[in-house]
Amino acid sequence: VQLQASGGGLVQTGGSLSLSCAASGRTFSSYALGWFRQAPGKEREFVAVVAQNDNTYYANSVKGRFTISRDNAKNTVYLQMNSLTPDDSAVYYCAASNNLWDSTWYKPGFYDYWGQGTLVTVSS
Asked: How far apart are CA 92 and CA 75, in angstroms?
């Protein structure tokens, strides 16, 4: 699976951005799809995931502001980000996992495939 993330950019505090991640492959629906982010000098952190059964999970820091969704017909996963703050500034990565769902879904090691990242900058 190859992943291509897009949609990053510069936005003011309180603004919104929508990220997309297009995937290759014909078994897209069998993958859990996640978003992670990494700010300079920090570790990569979990943001959101949509499981194979369409259940969604979010980091506490983005819950209520971000929405993850998938369109299996378009082989695309989305991340709608609202009420952005400077703390949301980071490179955002999409990831895909074909592993059986387990308790490590929020860890980078659960995911087998990664996109190249798209930069989100929120100005104060």
From this structure: 18
Which stretches does DSSP call E strand in the chain? 3-6, 9-12, 17-23, 32-38, 45-50, 56-58, 66-71, 76-81, 90-97, 113-114, 118-123
Q: Write the DSSP symbol of residue 83.
A: S
Q: 1-22 pLDDT, tens per residue?
A: 899 999 999 999 999 999 999 9
Number of DSSP helices (H) and strands (E) in the chain, helices first: 0, 11
Query: At 101, is the pLDDT very low, low, confident or very high (cuts 50, 70, 90)?
Result: confident
Q: Tokens for 103, please give them.
A: 């308790």
